[in-house]
Amino acid sequence: MPLEYTLTKNAPAPLPGIYSQAVKAGGFLYTSGSVGMRTDGQMVPGTVQDRTRQVLENLRAVVQASGYTLGDAVKATCYLSNLERDFEAFNEVWKDVMPNPKPARTCIGVARLPAGGTDVEIELVLYKD
After folding, report:
1. CATH number for the domain including 41?
2. What is the pLDDT of residues 52-81, one digit of tens each?
3. Residue 121, strand partner residues
4. Which InterPro entries match (predicted)?
5. Is 71 exposed, middle or buried (0-12, 13-18, 19+ CB in 10 A)?
6. Structural domain tally of the chain?
7. Side-chain half-sphere of 45: how many Cα atoms within 13 Å?
8. CA-CA distances (angstroms) from residue 8 to 69, 87, 88?
9. How far, in Å, CA of 29 to CA of 115, rounded?
């Protein structure tokens, strides 16, 4: 099965030669982790909720460019740099943006995320026939 790679200008550009925005393998789409960065490369200021909303908008753009919707998500892995402080605020945006039924999800508290100035990162696995 040939792999298909996604590149859309409607989400922050991936670092060349480092990663792809998403890779399709059969009916599955695997996204790279997305952070609260705008397409101009600037991190969204404000709260974890502001950045979570941007993350999900970035992911929406990537999955749409791949022919999927957020409703096709089957698994999400979410990273928060301060899980104890930000989990409830993160969940408020998650519940508002992600369609039902919600995908399986894991939230992990991490000491630091690689993109400077962010406190949230999300990656998705999506499936459709």
Report:
1. 3.30.1330.40
2. 999 999 999 999 999 999 999 999 999 999
3. 35, 79
4. RidA, RutC-like_sf, YjgF/YER057c/UK114
5. middle
6. 1
7. 0
8. 15, 29, 31
9. 23
